[in-house]
Write a structure and sequence with these properties.
This protein has 201 residues and is mainly alpha-helical. Helix content is 58%, strand content 9%. The protein has 5 helices and 3 strands.
Length: 201
């Protein structure tokens, strides 16, 4: 009888140990699975946040550029019909160069009919189209095109003075983390980065 009790106790002990090992195994897998999901959610939220912030900055640069183009004290926009297309010219009103740039001319195919007069509405439509078609991607990449000297200089200065608005990024990031159902404290760490060269090896 005593031997049977000892066998039962031994079997119960082995079962308890096996259950404990299985529980630890499942907890370990569950922890690592949750960690992967958490890291993936954090990374995805950060990528979306950065993209949103870049798009906001692009739109802000675009609005500023439109203001420069529509500033009659800075830029002169004119149009003429060449028999086929309406040709628009953009030139600095007061060129500072000794050898000023020639006007930047381009056809505007969106407006098919001959323009007799450049009305304020047509001018605004042209500026909106020009910025959207020629400059939107440059506002993200930071490339500067000198359509006129003053526009290029202003754009270069705006890019040079621009920096990441961490407070704004944090607000967007918190919203994106909430979408991933993540509520954890975080802190952005800003690191200096200096590009030296590509490694061909």
């Amino acid at each position: 009888m005593k031997k049977k009790i000892n066998i039962i106790i031994l079997l119960m002990t082995i079962s308890a140990v096996l259950m404990l090992v299985l529980q630890l195994y499942f907890n370990y897998n569950s922890y690592h699975s949750n960690e992967r999901v958490f890291k993936s959610g954090v990374d995805n939220a950060l990528k979306r946040s950065v993209t949103k912030l870049m798009n906001i900055r692009r739109d802000e640069f675009a609005d500023q550029y439109k203001k420069w183009l529509l500033d009659t004290n800075l830029i002169v926009i004119s149009s003429k019909f060449d028999g086929k297309d309406n040709i628009f010219s953009i030139v600095d009103k007061n060129p500072t160069d000794k050898n000023p740039r020639p006007p930047f001319d381009l056809a505007w195919p969106e407006f098919k009919t001959k323009l007799d007069k450049l009305t304020p509405k047509i001018k605004v439509d042209f500026v909106n189209s020009f910025v959207r078609n020629f400059l939107y991607s440059d506002f993200i990449t930071g490339r500067v095109l000198f359509f006129t000297t003053s526009l290029g200089e202003r754009q270069a200065k705006a890019f040079q003075n621009d920096s990441v608005d961490l407070a704004r990024l944090k607000r967007i990031y918190l919203q994106e983390l909430a979408i991933e159902d993540i509520r954890a404290p975080f802190k952005f760490k800003v690191s200096d980065y200096n590009f030296k060269h590509f490694n061909s090896k």
